[in-house]
C-alpha cells in the first residue's frame, strides 16, 4: 500500500506523519487489497472555531474508491474521526 500525505495550510511534522502512518497502516487488516491511500490535511476557514481542521482520506482498491472527510477543532481528532468513517465504509 502506498501512502501519500498532503498538507494544505498545515505543516506536516514528523509526529503528525507517524500518527497518520500508524492509523492508515491498520486499514490493511480490514481491506488487504488497498493499492493507494491519500490523506489530505488542511485548515479551513469557518465561522465557528470548532470546525477548522479538516482530514480527507481517499482509498483506492481494485477499481473501488472510498472517500471520507471530517472537520474538528483538533487535527488528531479529525484523523481519528475520518478513520472511523472509513472503517464503517469498508464494513459495508
Q: Whole-number radius of gyration? A: 13 Å
Percent of residues in β-strands? 35-45%
Tell how many strands the DSSP assignment holds: 4
What number is the mean pLDDT?
A: 90
**Element-by-element helix/strand order:** EHHEEEH
Largest sheet: 4 strands, mixed
Shape: globular
Distance separating the two termini: 21 Å
* Helical fraction: 25-40%
The helix-and-strand class reads: alpha+beta
User: How many DSSP helices?
Assistant: 3
Order of strands across the widest beta sheet?
1-2-3-4
Stretches where pLDDT is under 50 for at least 5 consecutive residues are none
Description:
With 92 residues, the chain is an alpha+beta fold. 36% of the residues lie in helices and 36% in strands. Helix 1 packs parallel to helix 3. The longest helix is centred in the last third of the chain and has 17 residues. Strands 1-2-3-4 form a 4-stranded mixed β-sheet, covered by helices on one side.
Give keywords.
92 residues; alpha+beta; globular
Short description:
It contains 3 helices and 4 strands.
What order do the helices and strands come in, and which of them pair?
Layout (H helix, E strand, L loop, with lengths): L1 E7 L5 H12 L1 H4 L5 E8 L9 E9 L2 E9 L2 H17 L1
Parallel strand pairs: 1-2
Antiparallel strand pairs: 2-3, 3-4
Amino acid at each position: 500500500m502506498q501512502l501519500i500525505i498532503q498538507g494544505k495550510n498545515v505543516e506536516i511534522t514528523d509526529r503528525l506523519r507517524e500518527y497518520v502512518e500508524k492509523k492508515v497502516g491498520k486499514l490493511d487488516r480490514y481491506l488487504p487489497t488497498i493499492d493507494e491511500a491519500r490523506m489530505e490535511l488542511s485548515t479551513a476557514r469557518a465561522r465557528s472555531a470548532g470546525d477548522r481542521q479538516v482530514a480527507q482520506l481517499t482509498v483506492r482498491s481494485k477499481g473501488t474508491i472510498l472517500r471520507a472527510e471530517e472537520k474538528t477543532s483538533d487535527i488528531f481528532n479529525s484523523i481519528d474521526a475520518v478513520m472511523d468513517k472509513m472503517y464503517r465504509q469498508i464494513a459495508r
